[in-house]
Write a structure and sequence with these properties.
Elements lengths: L7 H4 L16 H41 L11 E3 L2 E3 L4 H12 L7 E2 L17 H18 L38 H9 L5 H12 L10 H8 L12 H14 L6 E5 L4 E3 H8 L9 E9 L10 H4 L7 E8 L2 E9 L2 E5 L5 E2 L19 E4 L6 E8 L2 H15 L10 E3 L19 E2 L16 E2 L2
Parallel strand pairs: 3-10, 4-6, 5-13
Antiparallel strand pairs: 1-2, 1-8, 6-12, 7-8, 7-12, 8-9, 9-11, 14-15
Amino acid sequence: MDPTTSSTYVYGRSATEDHLEDWDLLPSVSAGALSQEVCSKDQEAEERSKFKSRLVSAWNSVKYGWSLRQKSKFNKSSPLIMLGKTYNLKDDGDKESFRRAFASFLWLTYRRGFPPLPGSSLTTDSGWGCVLRTGQMLLAQGLLIHLMPPGWTWAVKYCAAKDDLDLLHPADGAECGWAGEEGGNTRGRKLSVGSLLDRPKLAKHRMVVSWFADHPAAPFGIHKLVELGKSSGKKAGDWYGPSIVAHILKKAVAASVDLPNLVVYVAQDCTVYLQDVRGLCERPPPHCWKSVIVLVPVRLGGQELNPSYISCVKLLMLQCCIGIIGGKPKHSLFFVGFQDDHLLYLDPHYCQPTVNIKKDNFALESFHCKYPRKMAFSRMDPSCTIGFYAKGQNEFEGMCAAVNEAVSTSAETYPMFIFSDEKRWDVEEEGIPRTNSITYLQRDNVLDNEDGNSMDEFVLI
């Protein structure tokens, strides 16, 4: 008899007690004591987890807060490329345009002190959520291009500075200041922001920021992304690879009621299937094509970046490119440009306090970065996801032509990815790669190894 089918096996002996010699029969008092002991251990484990999270948050705040303020050196003699635009730093006008353009990216970093994440007691993503944050930054850039007018930049003015990349406080009347302290001139900031909120562009910018808030109700906040990651076998505290994050972003946009005219397509097997994209975007007349964000997860080498693909990473030269989720091993960064042999990036590892976006005129300073950083191409981890945006059908066809030309520049190397006119008939639900597919590389326990290089989820090219 199965001992779990009768309560008499726990709280008293039955007529067949001679068959129960191998079972420990606990009285109700002992069971209660055991329950209290287990509860106490759970509470201790939860407290240890919270203490560890606070410790990691503090370490990241110190480590990356210090490195963040180290100014990168840029070459005035070389052009600087950033998402399809070229800046000549010798020219004061270009230098000012670069400052404004870089400061307009949404900078989404580790946060602490937000409501517990789904299925956990974690109130910070410090130490594990960097790929989710870089994914947020890539999506945010796509949304800004989708919603804001061409050439939009954040309404912040800068003064000349000794260092080319040192962005000073905005002039009077700008939307908000760079002061990091909440206790600054709050009244002045509220007055200046309040006088500008009626402007559609500024209100829309603030709306986009609120979509990425660290709150369960935010459509692209960390709570929503963690919740959507459960169907991929992920939970809060896990390492998320660039490929899985791409699929999570696709689900998040599909679930959003705020973006009915935008879809996200994730390439499969390093192939963009054009019929699948058209199927997502086409609508019957008189409706126009839906805008599309195309995400292409790739692996540009084995253990290290294959130098043959460095020229292809310069897809950042294309105006249709919205950035790259990449980085160093187990250290995700958001790449937005390059100069010479160095990539330009935003770093999500600085842990900041959570901002309450429900407050009127909530501070925007922590969502924008004034310190451009550089990293050598050779240090780039080969695992990455490249993002593109097309407003309509003509833009999509032009994007395909421009990208196809860029990835086919080297005849000696297999392209990073390809475009196919065919339709992928065996698309799996939500497109998560199969572990038994011969075109994918899966290493055992790679996600549990902090020293690993996250080689799962990617096609070998």
